[in-house]
Specification:
This protein is of the alpha/beta class. It has one domain (2-139): 2-Layer Sandwich (Nucleotidyltransferase, domain 5), CATH 3.30.420.140. Helix content is 46%, strand content 25%. The chain contains 4 helices and 5 strands; from the N terminus they run E-E-E-H-E-H-E-H-H. The protein has a 5-stranded mixed beta sheet with strand order 3-2-1-4-5, sandwiched between helices. Helix 2 (69-85) links the parallel strand 4 (52-59) and strand 5. Helix 1 crosses helix 2 (69-85) and helix 3 (97-107) crosses helix 4 (115-139).
């Protein structure tokens, strides 16, 4: 089964996916935000047919680890996504994931089109990588 990750932004939702074999994460897409119900439906359409068994939503904690408005919005989105999809949904600390995504994207050769969308999807992949690392650390 696959695991999906969500980078919830104000304008876009970045989506990434990984199979359950513990190897990497693939940036999938970024969808424009339109409203909660539309966003939930669009997210699930993107994941349709991919065998997703778990969704991880990035939790944008403040640098001191506290929860601000963005983290509360992500927690609310995660709860709504859990209800809408019927799948288990977890959150994962995503501090500086977009900064890391921008740095990684700068290092890649190729065209620069759709840069913001690529950053959002790559940030979701980074969130998934961090979630996996946290799980491995908890097991080891």
């Amino acid at each position: 089964m696959a695991i999906a990750a969500i980078d919830l932004g104000k304008r876009r939702i970045g989506i990434a996916i990984s199979n359950d074999d513990d190897h990497g994460a693939l940036p999938l897409d970024a969808i424009e935000r339109r409203g909660l119900r539309t966003d939930l439906a669009a997210t699930m359409r993107c994941l349709e047919g991919r065998g997703v068994s778990l969704i991880v939503v990035g939790l944008p904690l403040n640098m001191d680890g506290s929860r601000g408005p963005a983290a509360r919005a992500a927690e609310d989105f995660a709860a709504r996504l859990r209800e809408f999809s019927g799948l288990p949904v977890e959150t994962c600390d995503e501090r500086l994931s977009s900064v890391e995504a921008e740095e990684r994207l700068r290092e890649l050769p190729g065209r620069r089109g759709r840069r913001k969308e690529r950053i959002d999807a790559l940030a979701a992949a980074i969130i998934l990588e961090r979630w996996r690392e946290g799980r491995r650390g908890a097991r080891g």
